[in-house]
Amino acid sequence: MIDLSINLNKIALIRNSRDTAIPDIVEHAQLCIDAGANGITVHPRPDQRHIRAQDCFQLKDSLQVALNIEGNPFTKARRSDRQGVSDYPGYMALVEAVRPAQATLVPDGDGQLTSDHGFDLTRDADRLMPIIAQLKGWGCRVSLFMDPTPNAMIIAQHIGADRIELYTEAYARAHARGHWDTVLKTYVDSAIAAHEANLGVNAGHDLNLPNLPDFRVPHVAEVSIGHAFTVDALRFGISGAVQRYHGALDALQRRY
């Protein structure tokens, strides 16, 4: 069974467009869980334009499923310029305080619109190793956001990661063009390499209802869906969207 983790960033973005507490992040997380979501993902950024640091604490206190906090472990603290919004403490300080089930490390810049590449472990391995050790010392499972590069998976294992998350935008773009077999092979090879290195495999970014059933990649334990899920929730409601994503995952697993 592949777990479905719902990313709530875009729900928070709607809230932050007004000076309001609506939509309530914890309430919407629970709606997703009640509908069958296996986990909740958030990616707080230093400008707190969507998920805020205080949301992470509230989610941790309320959820009965795994909380996954994504972010760049090298981000520093930033003072909030909005009344009633707590300061961003920096990724590592936030994770230390919240202690989520999973910490997914992503190499995005502070002002980046969305994640658009994975770690280059030929460059970043040495400085990631002590960070991974610290996160595991806090009881977090550690996942590294990675491009589909098979040779990098043994490095991820060597520096202590528990899982990798395959960055799937290249697959999603190829699928939208109608020709994805060649691109998909890079993901298959990467997932096999990760599995052989005793790493768990997650996947996420631009996966959606049309392309998820064709993502025939072995050993995937979890997918994270956010932007597309929010759009589909507007169409089908939260419960309907969660059920459709589980249906897409069921169709995917029948195609192995």
Tell me what the structure shows.
By secondary structure, the chain is α/β, with parallel strands linked by helices. The protein has one domain: Aldolase class I (TIM Barrel, Alpha-Beta Barrel). It is built from nine helices and eight strands. It has helices at residues 9-16, 25-34, 53-62, 91-98, 121-137, 153-158, 169-177, 181-196, 227-254, and strands at 3-7, 39-42, 66-71, 102-105, 141-146, 163-167, 200-204, 220-225. It has an eight-stranded parallel barrel, surrounded by five helices. The longest helix has 28 residues, at 227-254. The two termini are 12 Å apart.
Overall spatial form: globular
Helix content: 40-55%
The portion of residues forming beta strands comes to 15-25%
Helical segment count: 9
> pLDDT under 50 segments (min length 5)?
none
Strand order of the largest sheet: 1-2-3-4-5-6-7-8
Please name the CATH architecture: Alpha-Beta Barrel
Kindly provide the name of the CATH class. Alpha Beta
CA radius of gyration is 17 Å
Number of domains: 1
- Give the overall average pLDDT: 94
User: How would you classify the helix and strand content by structural class?
Assistant: alpha/beta
Q: What gap, in angstroms, lies between the N and C termini?
A: 12 Å
Query: What is the total tally of β strands?
Result: 8
State the CATH topology. Answer: TIM Barrel
User: CATH H-level name... which superfamily?
Assistant: Aldolase class I
- Most strands sheet: 8 strands, parallel, barrel
